[in-house]
Write a structure and sequence with these properties.
Number of helices: 8
Structural class: alpha+beta
Number of strands: 6
Helix content: 40-55%
Radius of gyration: 23 Å
Length: 243
């Protein structure tokens, strides 16, 4: 079992009032992990700090953004990943698998867990958006914000590019921010109707999440009860055998 640093940095990433939006861990020794870095530059800055000759574990936040009738809602999606660089020695490659579960517990609350390497393709913005869209249920955010200078963008704009760079600039020079260049489409419904619709959708998602949590809790209670009954039955059999 690896020794992990205090979870304060991941707590900062998951704290909506903290600007920190990524953190990265590396091995200080064979079984001791340390903070390699954290920051406010989002996915791009996190990915830029990956080392090709190391096994690393990281996490960052992506926001699903909706604006309707003057009401803006942001839903955080926390992405956790294990990185195995192209130059990692064969004997060290098993670390990500052997310690994956313990490290994933450190990144508690992550909505998505990925194993990445030897390249960073699976951490590209469009790949993350595809996964979020396929697992996001009925409600699909109109915009996604990866924490850099380009701001919230539609999946279509993300597909066309450019992607965020580690210094916050765009990959293709001369491109303006997608959020600024693409004005919001006119909404036919009234602001009041849109606000109510946004609130209703948020309420539905909250209810669905609560239902899943209640079902998980109920399943845990049933499992504990079954374990107790099995233990009691075993003791009863032992007593009968002694007689």
């Amino acid at each position: 079992m690896p020794t992990l640093p205090a979870r304060i940095m991941w707590s900062a990433v998951t704290n909506p009032n903290d600007p920190t939006n990524w953190v990265l861990l590396r091995f200080a020794s064979k079984k001791v992990l340390e903070i390699h870095g954290s920051g406010q530059g989002g996915r791009a800055e996190c990915v830029a700090n990956l080392k090709p000759d190391e096994v690393m574990f990281g996490g960052f936040v992506v926001y699903g953004v909706d604006t309707r009738g003057g009401v803006t809602s942001k839903r955080a999606k926390f992405i956790h990943f294990a990185w195995v660089g192209a130059k990692v020695r064969i004997m060290d490659r098993s670390r990500a698998s052997a310690m994956g579960n313990d490290v994933s517990d450190w990144f508690g609350g992550a909505h998505m867990t990925l194993r990445v390497g030897p390249d960073t393709d699976d951490l590209d913005e469009i790949e993350i958006v595809k996964r979020l869209l396929s697992s996001g249920g009925a409600h699909k955010p109109k915009l996604y914000d990866f924490g850099g200078s380009l701001g919230p963008r539609t999946p279509e704009d993300i597909t066309k590019g450019p992607q965020e760079q580690s210094d916050g600039t765009a990959a293709a020079s001369g491109e303006s921010k997608a959020a600024e260049a693409s004005p919001a489409a006119p909404i036919a419904a009234t602001p009041v109707d849109d606000a109510k619709e946004a609130e209703a959708e948020a309420a539905k998602e909250a209810a669905a999440e609560k239902k899943l949590a209640d079902e998980a809790a109920a399943a845990e209670v049933r499992a504990q009860k079954a374990a107790k009954e099995a233990k009691a039955a075993a003791k009863k059999r032992e007593k009968e055998e002694v007689r």
